[in-house]
Amino acid sequence: MDLTLKVWRQNGPDKPGEFKEYEAKGISEEASFLEMLDIVNERIVESGGVPIEFDHDCREGICGTCGVMINGHPHGNQKGTATCQLHMRKFNDGDRIVIEPWRATGMPVVQDLIVDRSALDRIIEAGGYISVDTGGTPDANLIPVPKEAADASMDAAACIGCAACIAACPNSAGQLFTAAKLAHLNLLPQGQPERYDRTIAMVEKMEEFFGSCTNHGECEEACPKSISINNIAFMNRDYLVAKFKDRRKAGQT
Amino acid sequence: MTTTGRREDTKPARKLPWILELYRSDVAKKWIMAISGVILLGYIAAHMMGNMKIYFGPEEINHYGEALRELGGDLVPKTHLLWIMRIGLTAAFAIHIHAAYSLTRKNLQARGRVRYDVPREYLAANYASRTMRWSGVIVLFFVLFHLADLTWGTTNPDFIRGDVYNNMIASFERVPVAILYIVANLALGLHILHGVWSLFQSIGANNRVYNKWRRYLAWGFTAVIVVGNLSFPIAIQLGIIS
Ligand code: FES
Question: Confidence class of residue A222 from pLDDT cuts 50, 70 and 90?
Fold first, then answer.
């Protein structure tokens, strides 16, 4: 199939960027979206140009590095998949495809389609872990976990940190990502000791970088793992409880 | 890397009182918007129901107006309870607007100047959710006009203090005013359609079993309010009440 690409090119974080058009002729329908970009890049290199920079790693939808905006849809117009899982058979011969990087103040463009998602790492650093003392290997399944809690936690843990939720949000809010990471730990017994401190730390770190949720629900639609906005409600509840607990603790010491 | 995109936040070193410290957080602001929203929704429902008395004749509704002033009966001096309610309502209104304003500013900044080239095709966001800011502003200006029109009587030449029946008719008889009320109430409907659903999400009242009822409640509540409120100008324009 023959396609026309309109791609955002930007030669560095503080450089001005612009859209450039590329012809992509003779692309196989079986190619994945990233393979199509590989082919286009090879041709650019052969003709002496600078290839289009895009992030990718696993190419099987589990690492979360490959997100781009395709024709106004994060990860393309296919529900529940990452860009690397999108195939060219979803497009038609002669299509014009606009490829843009994620846009948000908290995720500035590094180069072409690559954005700096390190704000997400800062949120994880703030509390997206559990503290464990080292020692002998504990026996497996030593801590009983209710099935429902394990399931809900597992659903939230499916988050691959691709930032499509933020890219999709009209407010550039980081709620779905943060809520998923919180629900993942806060639902499990292992997450309980640090639950409320974690919630405050992660929410407040998130708010340093991103906007605020107005409950549109676009993030859930964009999420390659279809993570539910129910997690956001869970986070909102835990945050206020945490603030009250904080106050009570302050009175005790 | 030169730009990290981190918002240059101006967190003061001095610790604010707990409630103000809490209000600094966006998530808490949404809680406060939800709670002030519930107060305003309660008021809207009571207001609409009270006005229904116009269908029972001048004495009924004028008596209702008087009863509001005598709220609390013999237990409190006349109009005191009404004033306490008015102050509470104004406070809820003010804080709702302040939170909305500051969150809107933050969100615009978080979004940045460069927008997507392809207009976003929204899949979950609806007209109501995307126009909250506009419908909110319309409702705000409408409330100011509404107060001037039917509470203070400044925009209503035939205003008679205490004669609710006469004032409503004198106001809604004018076609432009009737149209204004209809438009404003449709905007109010859009606003509460998203608001009623959204407030559950903001306060984390969430359960997979009941979640669909949050939408039903939003639609039901909005329908009752909008139909009720629109009926007054329409009935007066059609001469059903005169
Ligand atoms: S490349 Fe890993 S998720 Fe797409």
Answer: very high
Report residue A239's pLDDT band, with 50, 70 and 90 as the boundaries.
Answer: very high
Q: Do B7 and A209 touch (CB under 8 A)?
A: yes
Q: Which domains does chain B have, with CATH numbers?
A: 26-109+124-237 (1.20.1300.10)
Determine whether the interchain pair A116/B121 forms a contact, defined as Cβ–Cβ distance below 8 Å.
no
On whether both A243 and A123 belong to a single domain, the answer is yes
Q: State the CB neighbour count (10 A cutoff) for residue A203.
A: 27
Residues A68 and A131 grouped into a single domain: no
CATH code (residue A127): 1.10.1060.10
Under 8 Å CB pairs connecting chains A and B tally to 169
In the prediction, which pLDDT does B150 show?
85
Give the end of a domain, one of A110, A139, A164.
Answer: A110
pLDDT in tens, A136-160: 888 888 899 999 999 999 999 999 9
- Provide the domain limits for residue A67: 3-110
Q: Residue A16: which CATH number?
A: 3.10.20.30
Q: Under DSSP, is residue A24 helix (H, G, I), strand (E, B) or coil?
A: strand
A20 in B contact zone (CB under 8 Å):
no
A88 touches chain B (CB under 8 A): no
Read off the tokens for A76. Answer: 């393309």
Whether residues A77 and A177 fall in one domain: no
Partner-chain contact B22 A243, CB within 8 Å = yes
Q: Are residues A153 and A77 in the same domain?
A: no
* A134 and A235 co-located in one domain: yes
Which of A99-103, A104-108, B26-30, B119-123 is the least confident region? B119-123
Which one of A172, A234, A240 has the shortest CB-CB distance to B111? A172
Quick one: A226 and A144 in the same domain? yes
> pTM for this structure?
0.90
- CA torsion through residues B196, B202, B208, B210, sign: negative
CA of A176 to the centre of ligand 1 (A): 19
A158 shares a domain with A79 = no
Average pLDDT over residues A67-88: 94
Question: What residues form DSSP beta bridges with A99?
Answer: A7, A70
Q: How far is the CA of B171 from the centre of ligand 1 (A)?
A: 63
Residue that is last in its domain, among A110, A136, A164? A110
State whether the beta carbon of A32 lies less than 6 angstroms from ligand 1. no
Could you tell me the maximum CA-CA distance found in chain B, to the nearest angstrom?
74
- The torsion angles phi and psi of A109, rounded to 5 degrees, stand at -70, 135
In a shared domain, residues A95 and A122: no
pLDDT in tens, B63-88: 888 888 888 888 888 888 999 999 99
For residues B5 and B11, give the distance between their C-alpha atoms in angstroms, rounded to a whole number. Answer: 17
* Alpha helices (H) in chain B, listed in sequence order: 18-23, 26-51, 58-69, 80-111, 127-130, 132-150, 164-172, 175-203, 211-237
